[in-house]
Structures are given as C-alpha cells and as structure tokens.
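Same chain as my last thread, 165 residues:
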Amino acid sequence: MTVRIAPALVGDAEQLADLHLDVWEEAYADLMPASVFTERRSRRDERVASWSGIIAAGSSDNLLARSPDGRLLGFSSTGGGRDPDEGLPSLELMGLYVRASSYGTGVGHALLEAAIGDSPTYLWVLDGNVRAIGFYERHGFAFDGATKPEDVGLERRMVRSSTPV
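reply #2:
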C-alpha cells in the first residue's frame, strides 16, 4: 500500500483525535470493556484539545500515515524516555496505531521505520495484545520483565537495544 508519512500539524488535531479513538477500539475490543471506549468518546473535545497542545508544544514527535487520498491510516508518537530505570534506551515509542483495515499492508512497518529507524527504543504494550506483541517482536523488541498496572490493564515493557537483524 502506498502511504505518505509526515509530521502531525496542529490543524490535524481533530482528525488525529478521531483516529486515536477509532484505532483504540479496533486494537483493544477484546481486551477492554465497551464502557472504556464509550467514556473515551464522551471526552472527544478534550482529546482534540490535548492533541492540539501536544503537537503545538513539540514535546513528542508525532507522525501521521495517510493514504493517497489523504485518509489517516495510522500514527506514531516518540520522545525522550519517561521511565527512570537506568540502562533503558533514551528513545520511547509512546504509541503506534494503525487502522484495522490497514493491518498487514506495511503501514505499521513504515510508521515504525519513520519514527525510530534502527534506534534502540523501548515501549509499553498492553498484556494480551497478541497482534502488537508479535509486530514488535518481528522488529527486534523483547520483554524485559518490567510491568505496570494501568486503568485499562497491565502493561509490559519491551526493549530493542540494538539494530534488529
């Protein structure tokens, strides 16, 4: 699939917020109760404002993947690591989501490459998210044993310390 990847702009905040809501439901439908998605959608305006602020502040690097007709297919967010653990890579992949209709098309791979290249990186993945775990393992990430409970479930940390083979 042909995809165009470019940095998110403040003017993209509304589309990005809607994409984020959609891809969360697609990725986590079997892992979270429907009430989580309903609650998130009820705060859509807050999410638009939040994305606008994040993009304007430049506190993370946010990339958007678009189809040739301009439809948002996915996004990634990276930045300096937020975990205080020593020995972790300095780069954190804070989010990478792709529409279910784009699964298996290379959009996720293209976003990951554009976001982190071959840099050592770490991320948190929701326990039980088999599709995401397999994707990250294919790109050289492995669990390091760290976990953290979140409102939506247990997250497990994955780290890629060197360039994948």
